[in-house]
Specification:
alpha+beta; 6-stranded mixed beta sheet; ArgE/DapE family deacylase; hydrolase; metal-binding; Bact_exopeptidase_dim_dom; Peptidase_M20
Amino acid sequence: MNAETQQRILDAVDVGFEAQLATTSDFVAIPSTRGAEGPCQDMIGDLLRERGYEVDDWHIDVDDLKDLRGFGPIEHDFSKARTVVGTYRPQTNGGKSLILQGHCDVVPAGPLELWDTPPFSPVIKDGKMFGRGACDMKSGTIGALYALDAIKAAGFKPTARIHFQSVIEEESTGVGALSTLQRGYRADACFIPEPTGGKMVRSQVGVIWLRLRVKGHPTHVAFAGSGANAIMAAYHLIQALQKLEIEWNERAKADRHFKTLNHPINFNPGIIKGGDWASSVPAWCDVDCRIAVLPGWSIADHQKEIVACVAAAARNHRFLANNPPEVEWSGFLSEGYELTDSAAPEAAFGKAFNTVYGGEIQDLVFTALTDTRFYGLNHGIPSLCFGASGGEMHGFNEFVDLESLKKSTKAMALFIADWCGVEKA
């Protein structure tokens, strides 16, 4: 790809950026929390059809996925769950095929009064777009679409097959991405524009979601000593898992990438429910938790460690010793992933990065997870993860930095043109 072609594509991104932001704003405005992603998938399907892509829009059948590597249990109503894939098929086969993927699901907004502006009424100010999902990762998904638009607007068309995939469940199980592989979609590389602050994810954690189900013995609080408080008993188990977290972080010091980070393994009690009445000793308590694992760590082995930790803690508790708690797996059962065997796509993206940003791209050792793991671990497809800068993901006043979004869109466009090849339209 010569300098003139590059410049025409870069200029096209600049020209289309206002429209890109408008589309991003419309996408962010849809409250696509878990189980409510349908309108977002409708929008993506419409955008792909308008551009002439071959669209595959299907309902996900959990039974098709439950035996596949990386599957996590689904607990909510999944009857409306869908995946949308738009495929571009070239007239001339000259490059390498590519999967571009984004997830449209977002985490809950939390108390609305703690947002400066409504989470699903996106606002642009001070060079940023604010809104739930603006950073994680709706701006990246739309950025990938407009990167393809820029190639066309510059007068070119790719010479390799491209699958543009919009998936759900990235925030809780990953089965949306898994469904595309079950459906048969493959490519020479995958690119996921998650917000990475302009760095390339080199290694990322896996995640286990678990639920502690604790029983107590209810009494009137006036006679609390004769009962057993399930909430306090749950806290006893949380303290034990915090000690396990310390052990796992010690183990992480042997990992070639994660040894550079302080405390890469994070345990989080994220949801607690329990009791029925303030003046009754609570008879039950459920705690939903998340803990990370590193690449190469066995999910099954670490599940056993969790169960053993909880059982040992229960044996040292007056009530739980005879009323053992239950451990349920409530979502992610996801392995960590290290980007390997990826020299060719990394070289192509490295050239694009140097043109847009200057210099060499920095690696990111990531203490969260992305859908890249399915492509690399399940099918040996090198899966790059790179995107814009932003902040407050999963928090209040989430935002994406617009200048970084423009740059990441330009880098994607040049990467697609190089990797897939282009010819005059």
